[in-house]
């Protein structure tokens, strides 16, 4: 059986967590997130003889959602004589080194992504998300990642990197004000699910107003600049704050929001395109 006809795993190692996806061939079945695993656990994974054994080690049954439990029929049929393949993309070198003890690891590096014009320090997560979005919905493509950092990464219709930008994400901006000033309170991102008054009459709302409205204005400016370069260019959004971002844009700039593709699994789609190519 060819590799892409089997069940296989994708692993994205982020700055604080492990992000997993289970594929059957080209089909993404489900995803989940866990904390980093101890080195001893990673070492033991090499002894797993079935996919079910592996998943039990990295994804305890009591943590599985109902949707994921429905995949048990697929998993039960996935017995293998050797550890299943894990295709790994990582932004944390120390974690990458730990996972190299797993015998069937396939590390995806920047040179495996067919984007043209990339620079050596481009993050593998940004490159994979852009590749996944562009190959799924078409180029030109701009990917906005609304996570810990807010990033913009774009490629033209020749699949050549246009460039991008990086700035602090929404939560990091709130945290910086709370931690680096003597009298300003710490505002959690979850406390700002709706738009605050633009001209606030208390400190908490003043912080929310300043951060949120300038945050959205900056995103709008990048989007408009993108469409000036590529009027038919597409835009995909991922990241933990993507829903907040879309809600804000729908409230303030609905004509922009309606044109955006919201997809949290862009990196996994990028890995999938590499695996099946």
TrEMBL record:
Q: Which reaction does it catalyse?
A: (R)-pantothenate + ATP = (R)-4'-phosphopantothenate + ADP + H(+)
Q: Where in the cell is it found?
A: Cytoplasm
Provide a GO biological process annotation: coenzyme A biosynthetic process
Which residues are listed for K(+) binding in this entry? 145
Superkingdom of source: Bacteria
Per its UniProt record, what InterPro entries does this chain match? ATPase_NBD, Type_III_PanK
- Broad class of the protein's primary localization: cytoplasm
Q: How does it assemble?
A: Homodimer.
- What's this protein's name? Type III pantothenate kinase
Q: Which organism is it from?
A: Nostoc minutum NIES-26
Q: Which gene encodes it?
A: coaX
């Amino acid at each position: 059986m060819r590799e892409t006809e089997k069940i296989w795993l994708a692993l994205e190692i982020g700055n604080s967590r492990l992000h997993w996806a289970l594929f059957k061939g080209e089909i993404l079945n489900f995803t989940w997130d866990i904390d980093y695993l101890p080195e001893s656990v990673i070492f033991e994974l090499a002894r797993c003889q079935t996919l079910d054994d592996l998943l039990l080690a990295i994804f305890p049954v009591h943590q599985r959602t109902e949707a994921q439990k429905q995949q048990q029929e697929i998993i039960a049929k996935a017995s293998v004589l050797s550890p299943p393949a894990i295709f790994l993309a990582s932004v944390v070198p120390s974690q990458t080194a730990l996972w190299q003890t797993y015998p069937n690891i396939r590390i995806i590096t920047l040179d495996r992504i067919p984007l043209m014009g990339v620079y050596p320090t481009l993050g593998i997560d940004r490159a994979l998300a852009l590749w996944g979005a562009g190959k799924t919905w078409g180029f030109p493509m701009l990917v906005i990642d609304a996570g810990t950092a807010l990033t913009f990464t774009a490629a033209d219709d020749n699949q050549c990197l246009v460039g991008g930008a990086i700035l602090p994400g929404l939560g990091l901006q709130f945290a910086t004000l709370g931690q680096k000033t003597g009298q300003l309170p710490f505002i959690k991102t979850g406390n700002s699910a709706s738009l605050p008054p633009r001209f606030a009459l208390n400190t908490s709302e003043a912080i929310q107003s300043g951060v949120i409205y300038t945050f959205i204005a900056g995103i709008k400016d990048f989007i408009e600049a993108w469409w000036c370069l590529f009027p038919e260019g597409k835009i995909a959004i991922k990241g933990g704050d993507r829903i907040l971002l879309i809600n804000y844009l729908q409230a303030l700039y609905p004509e922009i929001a309606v044109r955006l593709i919201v997809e949290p699994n862009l990196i996994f789609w990028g890995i999938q395109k590499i695996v099946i190519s």
